[in-house]
Specification:
With 954 residues, the protein is mainly β. The radius of gyration is 30 Å and the shape is globular. The model is unreliable at 1-21 and 104-136 (pLDDT under 50). β25 (453-456) and β26 form a beta hairpin. The strands form ten sheets. The protein has a 27-stranded antiparallel beta sheet that branches. The protein has a five-stranded mixed beta sheet with strand order 3-2-5-6-8, with no helix packed on it. It has a four-stranded mixed beta sheet with strand order 10-9-12-11, with no helix packed on it. It has two domains: 23-103, Carboxypeptidase-like, regulatory domain (Immunoglobulin-like, Sandwich); 110-120 and 123-323 and 344-380 and 467-953, Maltoporin, Chain A, CATH 2.40.170. It has twelve helices and 52 strands. Pfam families: CarboxypepD_reg (PF13620). It comes from Chryseobacterium lacus. Residues 1-21 form the signal peptide. Its main location: membrane.
Length: 954
């Protein structure tokens, strides 16, 4: 694996070397034009030692004991800077040199922190890579995050599952799907704002990471500005209002520090129709300084939320109702009600110990526990049509196609009834008649109430044929981690990270609302069609097949995973080089335990075997200092990563089958950068390439026209035509390569130009094996619960999910009177939908009756039907403005930003190919219709958006 060790880009260089003494520490603050910065506040964290810079920018701290220190430098209209230094026993005075504060370009709401080591920036014999250590927030990263990121631009096309987010030393990545639920600390911006970031696949001091960034957040109570901070925000995005209040006591004379914060975000209705938002956030931080070498902290973080989501739709639906249309709601008794509501509360409790073992060594240890439920509601139904207003049989296109097909078969056919239905549907969708365009809750209640009273499975009453369920994840996550640092000397540092996670998630579906009925049956609604003669019971042997509100229905299983990692690292410097080498060895053991006995799958119930994976990795970084302003940076990584639980168990709701040929995904990544960092010009030019192998990709959807046959224990063969299916791709290979350029140029002390260019090609580079599984298929003739479909011909197809070209050009004006204004022009192109594998597989073109290709298939016809689905390009203009005041002890900041000023609503941020017809004849017929019934579903940009923020500190 390591034969292709490659070298990477990153802008975090060696942090400060450890020096220890009792001394006076002093420095000078200057702006980018080398002018003194007066009245800036310099907060010495962990002490009461707050000072202000004088008229020449000078500040000092006196009589500091030996130790490691961190200061936060703030001034209105300037970026916050975090500075680390050490005091050693052999020095009386410590000169921090000239510290440059750069003007804030986009306002404090973004909360960018610049973390730098100490040293003379012009002295290349010292740690003169200081200018690179900026939490990865160089100009490229800033624009990509805050201007292009609003339009779903992902730098390098890398999925967020390939990164690491850490809170106080432990990972926040969920083992089931590899995602991070940022909602667990939603609204607590002022607590989690200033992370340290190891960009892309560069090595980090805190974790090995992946090919995306390592983001490390620390929430020590003493490290927040003493006093109160009130924030009020107005916006038209997911929520409309945000209010927060934070108080920090600072470290008192008895060694105690407290920080508390509360926040709320809410909207009665968001920008998308029928959505609402109601979320709270709370934080309690307690820190006890036992002595100069020992500190203990306790942090409690919780953010309960309840919000509704919006739907993707086909282009036909958007043409009728516009980009803010949402099919997930309808009126009930005159009030809007959504079927898709997310709610949950998963608090985090963390105990952290900071111990200085000696003048050269330190040890941080964290124990963390997170628990709670996340629930996602939706409608479910049995033996009745889909109640969604966008069900294809309820759209005008369905009736238009019926008319066309009928006349094609018989030109004299009577289609008057279809024509009336078509006209009615067209008028209803054009006018927005809610009886057609939204969920009809009142009708659902009437239908359930009109069901006949039956006696079955030991109960008597009316069965709900449509009801609302919650898909629940009940998590219990233990984390423990240790971060050890030893400084051999001023130029060499050894780092060791140890981590352990015990993850358990109880996954089940429960009835949320029977919608006027008395019960729902825990049975497979497709059983009578796909599995005639079978019981159809989703939990055979249970006493209560009839389910009421709060009961589990459909599925019930538990995911477990234990994972341990060791991550040693070595950093050393010479007069011209900085080197960082990081290694990783990891072990994980994963299992599934089923609580339901599915009528088709023997392995549905009970605990599966343990699936164990050993993973290893190596990362390297080499920085060559041409001089104090010019740098060459090479970084590389080679490692493997175990599959997440949802990639390992391909259909966990009904069985314990694992993906065929599943392996750890292997990554090889490299990039090379030239960096220029001067007071007037800052630039980064990077070339990168990231390869992945052995990836397993799992997707679920509903499919028509599958044309498969299943065989039971007695050899009975059952044709399968339609079902919820799982598509599995095995041994997927991808390549992400391209170039990045970020540039800022100061025209004058107040005017600055900045820009970004990113050009990439993110492609599949092989034809992976593709498999099919289904909730309703049971086992096939070979005894497996999945069927091999052959290769999916994806080689050369573009990956979906992000624009592969992005450009931005902006201008900023920063007034010496503490106000600023700026604007950016942004352009995005080469955005694709991810190609569906099942319709590009060998099985797609194969006639199961003749075992030969379907009639009419030619290479040119396949290329026409299966061409990559490219989305339109678009450009946007964003602007921001801000003003701050210092009124005695009160600091006031007002910022405002507007994205998409020209209100471009034609940009598609993402979507997916519908895979309802999975054989060539049906797919060709649908694609050649005037009105495609199963065209792609899209999400559109919301249009113009704004964010106004008022902050008051006192």
């Amino acid at each position: 694996m390591f034969k292709r060790l490659s070298f990477i880009t990153m802008f975090t260089l060696l942090p400060a070397s450890y020096y220890f003494a009792q001394t006076t520490v002093y420095g000078y603050l200057k702006d980018a034009d080398a002018k003194p910065v007066e009245n800036a506040e310099i907060d010495l964290k962990g002490t009461e030692g707050d000072v202000s810079a004088d008229k020449i920018g000078y500040f000092q701290f006196v009589d500091l004991m030996p130790g490691h220190y961190q200061v936060v430098i703030t001034k209105p209209n300037f970026e916050t800077k975090v500075l680390e230094f050490d005091v050693t026993a052999d020095e009386k005075r410590r000169d921090l040199g000239v510290i440059t504060l750069y003007s804030a370009l986009t306002g404090a709401e973004q909360g960018l922190a610049f973390i730098e080591s100490t040293g003379d920036e012009e002295n290349s014999s010292q740690a003169s890579t200081v200018g690179l250590l900026q939490s990865s927030q160089d100009v490229f990263s800033r624009i990509a995050a805050f201007d292009l990121g609003a339009y779903w631009f992902r730098p390098r096309g890398i999925d967020g599952r390939n990164g690491e987010v850490m809170m106080n030393g432990v990972s926040m990545v969920k083992s089931d799907n590899g995602n991070v639920d940022f909602g667990n600390w939603g609204g607590l911006n002022e607590i989690t704002r200033y992370p340290e970031i190891a960009a892309n696949h560069s090595p980090s001091e805190y974790a090995f990471g992946g090919v995306s960034s390592v983001i490390y957040k620390n929430t020590k109570a003493s490290e927040y500005r003493k006093g109160f901070q009130f924030t009020q925000s107005l916006t038209n995005r997911n929520y409309r209002n945000r209010t927060s209040l934070r108080y920090s006591s600072g470290m008192n004379s008895k060694g105690w520090a407290f920080t508390v914060m509360g926040a709320r975000r809410w909207a009665q209705e968001g920008i998308q129709e029928g959505t609402f938002y109601d979320a709270y956030g709370g934080f309690i931080g307690v820190e006890k300084k036992i002595n100069d070498k020992h500190t203990i902290t306790f942090n409690a973080i919780g953010a309960p939320y309840k919000r509704s989501t919006s739907s993707p739709s086909t282009q036909e639906v958007y043409n009728y109702r516009g980009v803010h249309y949402n099919s997930y709601w309808g009126y009930q008794d005159g009030e809007k009600r959504s079927e898709r509501v997310r709610q949950g509360f998963q608090p985090i409790f963390q105990l952290q110990d900071f111990l200085k073992l000696s003048d050269k060594s330190s040890l941080w240890t964290t124990v963390s526990y997170q628990f709670g439920k996340d629930k996602a509601s939706r409608l479910d139904w049995q033996n009745v049509p889909n109640p969604s207003p966008t069900y294809y049989r309820d759209l005008p296109s369905f009736y238009a196609n019926q008319i066309k097909d009928a006349l094609a078969a018989n030109p004299a056919a009577d289609v008057s009834g279809l024509e009336t239905a078509l006209k009615t549907a067209q008028e209803a969708w054009s006018s927005g008649n809610p009886a057609f365009t939204q969920i009809d809750w009142d009708q659902i209640y009437r239908n359930n109430a009109a069901q006949p009273v039956i006696s079955k499975y030991g109960v008597t009453g009316r069965r709900s044929v449509v009801y609302q369920v919650n898909d629940v994840s009940d998590d219990k996550i233990w984390n423990a981690a240790t971060h050890f640092v030893h400084n051999f000397n001023d130029a060499t540092r050894f780092i060791l990270n140890l981590s352990y996670q015990n993850y358990r998630a109880d996954q089940y579906r429960e009835i949320k609302d029977l919608l006027g009925g008395d019960f729902a049956f825990n049975i497979d609604p497709f059983a009578s069609r796909n599995q005639p003669g079978k019981s159809g019971l989703l939990n055979e042997g249970e006493a209560n097949i009839a389910k009421r509100e709060g009961d589990k229905i459909g599925y019930d299983y538990t995911f477990r995973r234990q994972e341990a990692k060791i991550n040693p690292g070595l950093k050393f410097s010479t007069s011209k080089w900085d080197i960082f080498v990081s290694a990783m060895a990891g072990y994980s053991s994963s299992s599934r335990e089923g609580m339901f006995r599915h009528y088709l799958y023997k392995d549905s119930y009970g605990k599966s075997k343990d699936y164990d994976f050993w993973n290893f990795g190596l990362k390297g970084q080499a920085i060559y200092r041409i001089d104090g302003r010019n740098f060459l940076v090479y970084n590389g990584a080679a490692f493997n990563q175990a599959p997440f639980l949802e990639d390992l168990f391909i259909n966990p709701r009904v069985n314990s089958s694992v993906a065929p040929n599943v392996k750890s995904t292997v990554y090889y990544a490299n990039d090379l950068s030239y960096v220029l960092n001067s007071p007037f010009v800052k630039m980064r030019l990077t070339g990168f390439i990231v390869d992945s192998e052995n990836e397993t990709n799992v997707q679920r959807f509903f499919a028509d026209g599958i044309q498969l046959e299943t065989t039971d224990d007695q050899g009975n063969v059952t044709p399968l035509q339609s079902a919820f299916v799982t598509q599995v791709m095995s041994n997927v290979e991808k390549r992400n390569m391209g170039v990045e350029l970020g540039l800022s140029y100061k025209l004058t002390p107040s005017w600055e130009l900045q820009g970004l260019a990113s050009y990439g090609q993110y492609v599949y580079k092989n034809n992976p094996e593709t498999y099919f599984a289904s909730d309703a298929a049971g086992v096939f003739a070979d005894g497996n619960s999945f069927l091999e479909l052959g290769k999916a011909y994806l080689d050369g197809y573009r990956q979906g999910g992000t624009p592969q070209q992005g450009y931005s050009l902006g201008v900023r004006y920063n007034s010496p009177k503490y106000w600023w204004i700026g604007a950016n022009w942004n352009y995005l192109d080469d955005n694709y939908l991810d190609p569906s594998a099942i319709i590009r597989s060998e099985r797609f073109v194969q006639n199961p009756e003749t075992s030969t290709p379907f009639a009419g298939i030619t290479e040119s016809e396949l290329r026409r039907l299966l061409q990559p689905h490219k989305l339109p390009s678009a450009f946007f203009i964003n602007a921001n403005v801000g003003k701050s005041w210092l009124l005695g002890k009160y600091y006031v900041l007002i910022t405002a930003s507007v994205n998409n000023i020209l209100d471009n609503t034609d940009y598609i941020t993402g979507g997916f190919e519908q895979t309802r017809n999975v054989s060539f004849p049906g797919f060709q017929q649908d694609q050649d219709r005037e009105f495609t019934q199963f065209g792609p579903k899209y999400w559109y940009t919301q249009g113009r958006s704004y964010f106004i923020n008022l902050q008051l500190r006192f």
